[in-house]
Amino acid sequence: xxxxxxxxxxxxxxxxxxxxxxxxxxxxxxxxxxxxxxxxxxxxxxxxxxxxxxxxxxxxxxxxxxxxxxxxxxxxxxxxxxxxxxxxxxxxxxxxxxxxxxxxxxxxxxxxxxxxxxxxxxxxxxxxxxxxxxxxxxxxxxxxxxxxxxxxxxxxxxxxxxxxxxxxxxxxxxxxxxxxxxxxxxxxxxxxxxxxxxxxxxxxxxxxx
Amino acid sequence: xxxxxxxxxxxxxxxxxxxxxxxxxxxxxxxxxxxxxxxxxxxxxxxxxxxxxxxxxxxxxxxxxxxxxxxxxxxxxxxxxxxxxxxxxxxxxxxxxxxxxxxxxxxxxxxxxxxxxxxxxxxxxxxxxxxxxxxxxxxxxxxxxxxxxxxxxxxxxxxxxxxxxxxxxxxxxxxxxxxxxxxxxxxxxxxxxxxxxxxxxxxxxxxxxxxxxxxxxxxxxxxxxxxxxxxxxxxxxxxxxxxxxxxxxxxxxxxxxxxxxxxxxxxxxxxxxxxxxxxxxxxxxxxxxxxxxxxxxxxxxxxxxxxxxxxxxxxxxxxxxxxxxxxxxxxxxxxxxxxxxxxxxxxxxxxxxxxxxxxxxxxxxxxxxxxxxxxxxxxxxxxxxxxxxxxxxxxxxxxxxxxxxxxxxxxxxxxx
Lengths: 209, 416
Prior knowledge:
The structure holds two protein chains of two kinds. By secondary structure, chain A is an alpha+beta fold. Chain A has three helices and nine strands, in the order αββββαβαββββ. The model of chain A has no long low-confidence stretch (mean pLDDT 96). Chain B is α/β, with parallel strands linked by helices. Chain B has two domains: 26-93, 2-Layer Sandwich (Alpha-Beta Plaits), CATH 3.30.70.340; 118-415, Aminopeptidase (3-Layer(aba) Sandwich), CATH 3.40.630. In chain B, 42% of the residues lie in helices and 17% in strands. In chain B, a hairpin with a 5-residue loop joins strand 5 and strand 6. In chain B, helix 7 crosses helix 13. Chain B is elongated. The interface between A and B is medium-sized, with 28 and 33 residues.
């Protein structure tokens, strides 16, 4: 059993949230940890360390309610390049984003010039309303990067979208090339990370580093 | 009578001068009794060379006539009015005096306006912050601004001293912005400074606190880094000192204190954001605080603000063993976190640095604790990662308010 207020459980929770953002996040949904309720760790010989977590999540766009979730995060032994294995189970329904997704999709598709933006949020924490979906899509991308690159000795957060550029495609996906700044809490480094996100209302997000 | 008029007017022609100031100008209020007198004033009005400035023009006998008269013409106009039996009184003896007083009043008001309109709910430049420190020091007799040293790039390290008297009373230390990118901390420190200053005398707790103890507040512990976050790189954390033998700049000032210096949780690589520096206290920003506190000799609490993560921590960071005062610090930490939560429901996790965030050597509260300052706490303010370092300005005051409740709880315990 681990104290939720101590860092080992907190780091594993960050991986679970990153994975969830990648799976279930989108321009209309930003999942955030409200509270880590419970954490246990199991050391599996020759395999790695497995964390069992009970999380309470909220959508930043709908903070009046929360949803519970259980997660298992397995950090593999030894090899630094293998991503932790994550399993999640969300209890209950997340608020539907069908309307918002469609609206965003149509808005971007109808832009004459490809969208370009930088410094989201700006130095003072401001995000223009029309860029909030772009910001939340960056969370999806950062969630993927977090999941893929975390170890028991790291904790990643998206510090800022340094630059984002839309790339118009001939197929039905939206494409955004992001330059993200990720804050790694343990080393305190702010690391630039280039990612490409493909997104479609029905097909969801696909991320490539 | 008309001949007399023409004569006197001719004399007045010579008297008219072009003045840049209003020294000696008088403003008269003339009370006409009949139409005849009104006509005479209208004649006066038509003589442009007199440079009479009618504030209320002659129109009807019932209405007063106000006129500004240049200094050289004053006696002549008065003589004319008297010779015609026209009643008048002096509204303004010397207009320049009135203008000078008005200018002074406006300047004082503007000072008060500009300063009392410092927007605590916005992020400010170093210059603006320093200006506000000056204002607080000038507005409150028990607040003084002192300089405890200079940064690497020679910027003054300004501390606000809150002292209602005594001689080296037991003191509380509070600093913010040692890591320059943590903007909510410098901003909160300013709100807190203003809160303490303005509540002394009305808030029972603050009043009894400052009646017994002194408070020293360093709102910008790393001014070089802070300026750099404004001009070049918003994510800059360290100082801006040149490292011999490296192209990289800066030392993590919270790995540079003489507490387990160079141990785990700090980097020996100059390019790292947690580089501990060539030696303990190598950073002048750190050394200045160390020297000040040692020379004072009577500090009872050492409190430092960071962001983000919403944590309330006590020693140790450089080792994962509990401090001797663990029970008391844990209990006080929980009480403070509870006070914080009471305002907006913001939750802060409480614990030692090593258990809560990571093992980190060379930290400030480890140094202060090992140097006899029992009540050593480090706060990590809002948020938990949604905005991180880039906390929206509209959260500054809520963050400052809730943090203040936590600090106050600790200070009250120290006082008692």
